[in-house]
Design a protein that fits this description.
The complex is a heterodimer of chains A (190) and B (126). Chain A is α+β, with helices and mostly antiparallel strands. Chain A is built from six helices and five strands; from the N terminus they run H-E-H-H-E-E-H-H-H-E-E. Chain B is of the alpha/beta class and 126 residues long. The chains are: A alpha+beta (190), B alpha/beta (126). At the A-B interface, helix 2, helix 3, helix 5 and helix 6 of A face helix 2 and helix 3 of B.
Chain lengths: 190, 126
């Protein structure tokens, strides 16, 4: 019995070490799975801000990373759906960087019936250039209403406008009810 | 009119609305979770002010950062200023930004495109 426990302990240590190695190799600065609240948003953005300042990234890159993180995290805390039995808004958050760019990856559960319209929005935003995005942003600001959740429908347009990069994304169907939505935003280091 | 003087936090801006001294300023960061709740008293104050505004209102925006939900509320404030102008009074928006903050300058220019209000862009020194 105790031997079994010990083995389990070992395999967990192995897992922790593998994870550490993989985070190092992929230059992952932050990884989180759990409830996404305003407190979490504040904590992660200020942590990332400090790390970027330490790494002597330009102010512009720092501000863009901060901006994208806020919008992505607030998207989860406002829009994420839940697996059966869960009540809170959960998701994964990952920040990684390479020589060329920072990646902000978020993932959350979404109801299948919401997938087509979100896909459509993403495809549209990805198809627009900067001037079009700016025009769409202005239109949406004028015509849009703040939802009960305080969403303005502007987050994705704004991220695309500020990063100047296309989103990569994926929907993985989990069952008849829900899918897992993964979104990557990229910020070039200049 | 009563004075609104709200001290900023890490996710809400500082706000001064002081009609007697002609000081109107929003500064800092605005990324509250509930934008409506934070800005409601501010919008109410501006609604009341718009009924009897000063001949000239100079409003300073010195924002470092605002989220998209806040950007919608900022437009609502500007639309209120437009009404003041339509009633025959003057409004000038002073939009402050740090020199390396192109995005913040652009945000101001986008608002200036949408509303009929004179904008002045001012570079903030640290």
């Amino acid at each position: 019995m105790s031997e079994l426990k010990e083995n389990k302990g070992h395999s967990f240590l192995d897992f922790a070490y593998q994870m550490y190695k993989s985070m190092k190799t992929n230059e992952i600065n932050l990884v989180y799975e759990g409830e996404v609240t305003q407190e979490i948003t504040k904590t992660f953005t200020s942590l990332t801000e400090k790390n970027l300042a330490k790494a002597e990234e330009s102010n512009m890159v720092q501000r863009k990373v901060f901006h994208v993180m806020v919008e992505c995290l607030q998207n989860i805390s406002k829009h994420a759906d839940s697996l059966e039995g869960e009540v809170e808004k959960r998701g994964i958050v990952m920040v990684s960087h390479g020589n060329e760019s920072y990646n902000i990856i978020t993932g959350n559960v979404i109801r299948n019936d919401k997938v087509p319209s979100l896909k459509e929005s993403l495809e549209m935003v990805n198809s627009l250039d900067k001037a079009d995005l700016s025009a769409l942003y202005k239109k949406q600001m004028r015509e849009g209403r703040l939802s009960d959740k305080g969403g303005a429908g502007l987050g994705l347009i704004d991220i695309a406008k500020k990063t100047g990069n296309k989103f990569t994304y994926q929907f993985k169907e989990l069952n008849d009810e829900v899918s897992f939505f993964i979104l990557t935003s990229t910020i070039k280091r200049k | 009119m009563e004075v609104i003087n709200i001290k900023g936090t890490e996710d809400t801006p500082s706000v001064i609305l002081d009609k007697d001294n002609g000081i109107f300023e929003i500064s800092g960061r605005s990324l509250p979770e509930d934008v409506n709740m934070f800005f409601e008293p501010i919008m109410d104050w501006i609604d009341e002010y718009a009924e009897e505004p000063l001949p000239v209102t100079v409003f300073d925006f010195k924002l470092e950062y605002f989220n998209t939900a806040s950007s919608k509320v900022i437009l609502d404030i500007l639309l209120k200023f437009e009404e003041i102008i339509e009633s025959g009074k003057e409004v000038l928006v002073k939009w402050h930004y740090h020199e390396d903050e192109e995005d913040m300058l652009e945000a101001g220019e986008e608002y200036a495109d949408i509303v009929e209000i004179p904008f002045e862009y001012i570079v903030l020194e640290d």
